[in-house]
Amino acid sequence: TVTSANLRRGTCKSCGCYCKEVNTIHGLKHHPLYSIYNAMKNRCTRPTNPAYGYYGARGIRVCERWLEPDGVGFLNFIEDMGERPDGYTLDRKDNDGDYNSSNCRWVTKQQNQWNKRSTVGSSCYKGVHWSTRDRRWIASIKINGELVSLGSYYDEVLAATAYNEKAVELFGEFAYLNIFNKQEETIE
Q: How far apart are the first and last CA of the chain?
């Protein structure tokens, strides 16, 4: 039901049938993965989305295969990712990489937390910060919600390496590791 005033003003173009038709072209709007797919797409493509600053604005994109029109992209997403196991969430192996079949996987919420990029500290490396008191780089990692020190280092890369080693030990393939450029890797 629509008011005649809205129809005259042009704020409403139909009784609602058109919207239903557009949203169900592929017939899978109520599929359990549809909301996950839509959220992924919106945070990468819509500047008005609250999470856009952490995704689309950082250059994170959704692969063309998953963006095909008329529901084909959604069907491709299902084909590539398979059904979501209960309690699992969509994760990107490389947090700076795009959403595509080679970079995405289903993980538990805990595994997803292990694979977070660093957002705090004075270092460009996760798990590393500068201590003005000690005048050294401090490596640390969160284990069961508690920050555990991994030591202090004169070299920032060595501190980041200590973090990487502990992260792999604790979190395995779900660890978000620091990546070093070739010049830094020669420091040992």
A: 72
Strand 146-153 relative to strand 136-143: parallel, antiparallel, unpaired? antiparallel
Question: Please, what is the Cα angle at 55 between 52 and 56, to 5 degrees?
Answer: 70
- Please list, residue by residue across 111-140, b when 16 or more beta carbons sit within 10 angstroms of its beta carbon and e when fewer do: bbebbeebeeeebebbbbbeeeeeebbbbb
CA atoms within 13 A on the CB side of 89: 11
Are 74 and 68 contacting, i.e. CB atoms less than 8 angstroms apart? no
Helix, strand or coil, per DSSP, at residue 39: helix
Residue 139 CB contacts under 8 Å (≥ 6 apart), including other chains: 127, 128, 149, 150, 151, 152, 153, 159, 160, 162, 163, 166
Does this model's pTM top 0.70? My answer is no
Structure confidence by residue, pLDDT tens digits, 49-72: 888 877 888 889 999 999 998 889
